[in-house]
């Protein structure tokens, strides 16, 4: 498998390429500008000499008097060591020549003079009518020094580009390594995280703005893991605590029975007592298995059309006898339809109604209100009573949690899993459940959101 470049190497390489690209473009444009500047100087020099020569020759009305212009032409054209001039008539006879030795070989765009120096010339040719006869003016400017300077400049630019590329690579590596230090700190903290060090956090104040969101998300993940681990530890302790009581009862009853021989009725009574404890343990294990499936998304409700009013009426009929014994009255209002699993919803609402009956004083009224709104269908179950303290409300749906500090072991209906199962069922139906308790009135509000 091909080894991937590290992030530091990638950043330093990109930084080097960016710097090299910028400097290379700047050097190229500088070189082109210098070359254009020298080309313009050479053109102006040749054009000025040509225009001055035309002015002198146009004032000549007879070629026989050409010798009279030689001193002026010599002064105009012969004073430049890098300029070669020839004036030739129509028959090819050279009427005037300056720097003839350098130009004797008839230089072209890349001619050579001498054996040791490679020279470069720029030519300019024009034809002038003098006394009715055409004269050809040939100008050649030696631009060797310009070319040598440009070649030297190009070499220096290439050298500087290579040097800057190397320096930018090293500098980019140092900057990338320094800038990625907070990321290495995140890696070290992540590597050191264990079940005993979930309280560690990465300080977000000293991290760059680009990494603050990552650090905050990582710290939030650690907080969730810490909370989940604490809940799991408490859940394990609660399981051991809840199972210890029925097991102790079973062991005690069995040991008492085995101390001496007993009658058949005594054995049956103890077996029935053991059976009650075993049933309680079986219910508790079933509830814990249900919650474990819910946590892993394995609870998939059936998609049946349910009329909530009819479902609640059946549940109220089931609890009516218990309510009549205590003078408690049920009030059911509203109606709506939802899609869901009737058996699961019946179990969830049964848990809420049994809690309401347990804590409603004799002669009280339990209200059930159903309503359909823009967000979905709401169902509220409220009852009067002592109420629940604010410190307990956020944890009501935790497993094995009881508001009453006395755990009330031995009561099979109070294992502390009913509200946790209710929340799992409601969430499996894409709903939400909340509890509010104030002024002696406790209400559990359920919202079944509309499907997208």
TrEMBL record:
Top EC category: transferase
Leader sequence segment: none
Transmembrane segments: 12-31, 156-176
EC number: 2.7.13.3
Protein's cellular compartments: Cell inner membrane
Keywords: ATP-binding, Cell inner membrane, Cell membrane, Kinase, Membrane, Nucleotide-binding, Phosphoprotein, Transferase, Transmembrane, Transmembrane helix, Two-component regulatory system
Acyltransferase among keywords: no
GO molecular function annotations of the record: ATP binding; phosphorelay sensor kinase activity
Lipid bilayer topology: Multi-pass membrane protein
Main localization category: membrane
Function: Member of a two-component regulatory system.
Name used for this protein in its record: Sensor protein
Native source organism of the sequence: Stutzerimonas xanthomarina DSM 18231
